[in-house]
Amino acid sequence: MGIDPEKARFLEKFGSDYGYPTSPRSIDEIRATDFKRLNDVVYLDHAGATLYSESQIQSVFNDLSRTLHGNPHSQSNCSSTARDFIGEARRQVLRFFNAPPGEYTCIFTSGATAALKLVGETFPWSSRSVFAYTTENHNSVLGIREYALSKGASSFAVDIAETIGESSFKMIPRNALKRDVCGKSEHDGEVHNLFAFPSECNFSGERFDLGIVSMIKEGSYEFPEASQVQSSKWMVLVDAAKGSATSPPDLSEHKADFVVVSFYKIFGYPTGLGALIARNQSANLLKKTYFGGGTVAASIADLDFHKRRESIEEYLEDGTVSFLSIASLQHGFKILDDLTMPAIRRHTTALASYVRDTLSNLKHENGIHVCTLYGLHEHKEVGPTVSFNLRRSDGSWIGYREVEKLASLRNIQLRTGCFCNPGACVKFLGLSHSDLLSNIESGHVCWDDYDILRGNPTGAVRVSFGYMSTFEDAKKLLKFIEESFASPSSFHGHNVGVERAAKTVCLKSITVYPVKSCAGFSVDTWPLCDTGLLHDREWAVKSPSGEILTQKKVPEMGLITAAVDLKRGLLVVESPRCDRELRIDIASTTPPRPAQSFIFAVFSFRRAADRWFYNAVARPCTLVRMTGGDGEIRLNFANEAQFLLVSAESVADLNARLHHVEVDPSRFRPNLVVSGGDPYEEDRWRSLVIGDASF
Question: Per-residue confidence at 597, pLDDT binned at 50, 70, 90?
Answer without folding.
Answer: very low
